[in-house]
Design brief:
With 590 residues, this protein is mostly beta strands. The protein has 12 helices and 32 strands. The protein has a 32-stranded mixed β-sheet that branches. The longest helix is centred in the first third of the chain and has 13 residues.
Length: 590
């Protein structure tokens, strides 16, 4: 045994190596057992090339005598192996190996190891230098192994992912030439935060790179992915393939994975697969999907440069662009009631925790909407918003009995600027038009009838009306100039301010009668029908303004004929303006 050990030491010394152990035990027939063994360079103060917790070496004497050369069998059982090179260390647990070292050859009957859920079981052959040509210094480079392990890094706690394969290594002339055929399979595994019901991977790796085919059954849908890599030094893993949703619709994609930065980039993806459904199986993306949204029709899309950075927690993602090639339709639950948003076209992007909407259009409440804006979840900026002919009868689930008589009413708004939950940050301006609504729902018309019952005919009160508002917003204060409401018998004009910070309204209005009555009372209109609008938002009061006592006598009224003030109600207008934004996922009630 000492002679065999001496021969092993001499052969290692020719390559500038030395084998040491913390303890050794041996017998003539049982071989030698090394505990905490290391293989190191003879010169230099560097970490060992190999470290192993326990290794058994046996000398098959009959084979040695027959071959007339040194032969050793090396075995390990559930050991810990540490491989070191200039880049650092690679640690493998559960090392189980059985290989024979002959002149010029290492025959590996079995090599098993694990790293977390990853289990590797290989067989193969290593060709080594013979004779005097084997004296070159051994300088291992484990970048290939390191990259494979990083690529196949599974979340701790996942079920095992088992890789089997056959390898060949040629060390006779530097640089080393190696290749391995691989097959990996696992159930209920989690790769880089992507949980999968089943994953089957087959392919080859060599000193020149990597070629793999992955067949993945996701939590929702499936994927067929081709993976390739040229070389091992900081080169990206290229990914191409197909994603298929549960209905069989598919998307084609091309992308890359950069291991050093732990970043996945999908350079382009296109097709009709329901990406919302697929994203629901990926926790990092699922949490970004708005609650209460159901996709009725997912569009055919063209998306570019989706980037997912998994090296930070929580993972960060961005999307350069997504263009709808066909219309989409969704159902949104707003305060327990469904709202259909249909025929959605346009595009969007997501950068730095902010959505960007580009020419987004669709149908809502039997009207249409158009939106260009940036949105961070709290504030719309650089916004251009258009709501056209929204049918207010569709608000009945939210208005209840108040919504009666709105069958022919519609609402239109155009706005440019910013809108925020905090009104101080809302700045911009626009116009608002309400058409063919009952007078009771037209701000100031109903209140004018209530204040001046002797002056205004009841038949006008039962008719339909409309109004148009031009407004500007600055630091949470809306300036109304002008407001104009019309009914069959009455026109009301107003100016004022709505302070959304202090939640107060202040303004002045004047009502003018239309038709023959209006012409008769025109000289007295400023006395008869001037009104003051004031109060907190939840109790806005409209009051007569000026010396109206004498004017009432002129028209035969009495002090009891008119109220001192009436409350301004705006439920229909409030719901008509707020619900479209809530249906689009913005400014929901907390």
């Amino acid at each position: 045994m000492s002679k065999a050990r001496k021969e092993v030491d001499e052969r290692l010394e020719k390559r500038g190596l030395v084998l040491n152990a913390k303890s050794e035990s041996w017998s003539l027939w049982g071989g030698i057992t090394l505990k905490e063994a290391t293989l190191s360079r003879l010169t230099g103060d560097q970490p060992p090339l190999f470290e192993i917790s326990e290794l058994h070496v046996d000398v098959p004497w009959r084979e040695v005598w027959a071959a007339k050369s040194a032969i050793t069998h090396w075995r390990a059982e559930d050991a810990i192996l540490v491989l070191n090179d200039d880049q650092g260390s690679v640690t493998m647990e559960g090392l189980t190996t059985d290989f024979a070292v002959r002149q010029g050859t290492i025959e590996v009957a079995g090599l098993g190891m694990r790293q977390g859920p990853l289990v590797i079981e290989l067989k193969g052959e290593i060709l080594t230098a013979t004779g005097g040509g084997g004296s070159s210094e051994f300088n291992p480079n484990w970048n290939g192994l390191r990259s494979v392990l990083k690529t196949l890094s599974f979340k701790p706690g996942s079920d095992p992912f088992r890789i089997t394969g056959l390898f060949n290594v040629d060390l006779r002339t530097p640089p080393a030439i190696w290749s391995v055929d691989l097959r990996g399979e696992g159930n209920q595994v989690n790769w880089r935060g992507l949980p999968m019901q089943n994953a089957l991977v087959e392919g080859q790796a060599s000193q020149g790179g990597l070629r793999l085919t992955a067949n993945l059954k996701l939590l929702k849908g499936s994927g067929l992915v081709e993976l390739s890599r040229e070389g091992w030094k900081d080169t990206p893993l290229i990914m191409t393939g197909t994603l298929t949703d549960s209905a069989g619709r598919s998307d084609e994609f091309i992308g890359r994975y950069e291991g050093k930065a732990r970043t996945v980039t999908i350079e382009q993806i296109s097709g009709s697969a329901d990406l919302v459904e697929l994203a629901q199986g990926f926790p990092a993306l699922a949490e970004k999907i708005p609650a209460g949204v159901t996709v009725k029709t997912f569009p055919e899309i063209l998306a570019k440069d989706f980037v997912l950075q998994t090296g930070v927690q929580p993972p960060v993602w961005s999307l350069a662009s997504a263009q709808f090639k066909t219309p989409a339709s969704i159902v949104v639950i707003v305060r327990d009631q469904p709202v259909n948003v249909e025929n959605i076209t346009g595009g969007l992007s997501y950068q730095k925790d902010q959505w960007h909407f580009h020419s987004l259009k669709g149908k809502l409440l039997e009207g249409t909407f158009a939106l260009d804006a940036d949105y961070d979840g709290q504030k719309l900026t650089d916004a251009k918003i258009s709501l056209k002919s929204l049918r207010l009868a569709r608000l009945s689930p939210w208005l209840g009995n108040v919504g009666s008589g709105l069958e022919n009413s519609d609402l239109t708004m155009d706005y440019a600027g910013s809108i925020c939950n905090d009104p101080v940050d809302s700045t911009g301006g626009g116009t608002l038009v309400l058409s063919d609504a009952p007078v009771v729902h037209i701000p100031l018309l109903e209140q004018t009838y209530a204040l001046f019952p002797k002056l205004l005919p009841d038949r006008g009160r039962a008719s339909a009306g409309s109004f148009q508002v031009t407004f500007t917003m600055n630091n949470g204060v809306a300036t109304i100039d002008p407001f104009k409401a019309r009914s069959e018998a009455l026109t009301v004009t107003a100016t004022g301010t709505v302070d959304l910070v202090k939640r107060r309204v202040q303004g002045h209005a004047r009502a003018n009668l239309r038709g023959i009555v209006g012409r008769i009372t025109l000289p007295l209109s400023h006395v008869l029908t001037d009104m003051e609008i004031s109060g907190p938002l939840d109790d806005i009061r409209v009051s007569p303004e000026g010396p109206i006592g004498g004017a009432k006598k002129l028209i035969g009224g009495s002090a009891e004929a008119a109220k001192d003030s009436v409350k301004l109600s705006g439920d229909v207008l409030k719901e008509g303006l707020s619900l479209p934004f809530q249906a689009l996922g913005m400014f929901r009630d907390k």
